[in-house]
Amino acid sequence: MMGVRPNRKRLELMLMLLIGLAWGLLLSELMKRTRWQNSADRLKEESSPFPSSQRSRNLPTPPTTAPSTTNPPPDIQAARLFNETRVLCMVLTSPKTHHTRAVHIKRTWGRRCNKLIFMSTKADKELGSVALNVREGYSNLWPKTRAALQYVYKHHFQKYDWFLKADDDTYVIMENLRAFLHAHNFREPVYFGNKFRQHGYMSGGAGYVMSKMALHRLVKLGFSNSSICTNRNYGYEDVELGRCLAGVGVVGGDSRDENGLSRFIPFSPLHWYPQPPDWYQPLLYYTSPDNSSDCCSNTAISFHYNIAQEFYVLEYIIYKLRIFGINRELGPLPKKKTSSGTTSNHFRTTNDETGHNALIKMVPGKNVTKPNYRTKTTSKFKK
């Protein structure tokens, strides 16, 4: 009996040791898996093209049944369009509004551009602005815009398909812009905005977006010919640009929605809603629809005349505010449109001009007036 007890104690000790070793291995494996999952989540977040404030950190529970639609979720569509519809955003600003206006674009909607560039007359390291060698002032917006577009054409034309111009008090919903542009071909000479009655030009304040072909024709055929585009150092940017684009066969497209409501809005709904300001209706190229009392489309793209605080108000309402029990799914993307065929015979788009190889070869030539700028950007944004 005395010999059995020591053996039993040794067996009990060995059994306890084996159990402790097994628990230790199990806990070690669990900790490794946890660390790997955390690393994977961080890598996924860092590689996303959208700012972290616009992504949900908690993934939804997968549905137990198949979804009722074949359309991908809205966030997946937006991520796909971000890569497929490449938009360069060119924002006109001035030294006195770098930190009262422009910086708030950089912190809000500007983060959703494929490329964001601020055009000013003074370089700013925080903003990354380009210093153009032009005069400031409302009456000098035309030479400033012309120099800015020449700079963009020379340095960034190859990498992007659409080129958006906006003021530093304009708020743009980039997802709606890309969804609208999805139906259009950047090889077509076309531009979009809020069309005004006089000469059919697009409102500068609401912003306008030019196709790759439109920018190419503007710089190669327009800026090099003073009989098409005036080279005087004064003038209103939106009026002069409309004349230039029409002169080189670029079509002013219709950006209204299916109800005839404007998507590019030259005023802020925070100030005027549902009735627009008095000066707005007489300027419109299109007649306002009778079947709606709204001033603006449900798929609006831009709003003008916003102060700094209102950028963040719009950011909250559009991207963060959620309403329980209401589904605002917009449905599938618009279908691709065929060639408009509305350009004049003299400037009708040819296969040689719009082919893949031709677009790749579109670079500033000798006949292009050199852009009037002093320095390159002092900081880089995401491409």
From TrEMBL:
EC number per UniProt: 2.4.1.122
Protein name, as recorded: N-acetylgalactosaminide beta-1,3-galactosyltransferase
Positions with biased composition (Polar residues): 49-59
Record keywords, A-Z: Glycosyltransferase, Membrane, Nucleotide-binding, Signal, Signal-anchor, Transferase, Transmembrane, Transmembrane helix
Naturally occurring in which organism (per UniProt): Drosophila sechellia
Compositional bias segments (type: Pro residues): 60-74
InterPro entries, A to Z: C1GALT1/C1GALT1_chp1 (IPR026050), Fringe-like_glycosylTrfase (IPR003378)
Lineage of the species this protein comes from: Eukaryota, Metazoa, Ecdysozoa, Arthropoda, Hexapoda
Transmembrane spans: none
Similarity comment: family membership: Belongs to the glycosyltransferase 31 family. Beta3-Gal-T subfamily.
